What we know:
- The chain is mostly helical.
- The protein has four helices and no strands.
- Helix 2 (12-36) runs antiparallel to helix 3 (41-52) and helix 2 runs antiparallel to helix 4 (54-72).
- The mean pLDDT is 88.
Amino acid sequence: MIAKLAEMGVTSQMAYTAGAASVGLSVLSWVVSKQGESAGTDRADRWGLFIGEWAPTFFALGVALRLEEKSGK
């Protein structure tokens, strides 16, 4: 799967950027949900955690792609 992603042009830097963006989106979604919904902090926390859990996946893909880039050279 990692080799196929690399063949498609996905780089480790793209995955790292997506991971960092996910952290920012997590905070943003928490703030927006907390202010925009009447459901309270519980729902805002769930939105923040849901999006925040993407970051480790993107960072792990970044590491795997980085190893693929090094082995392909």
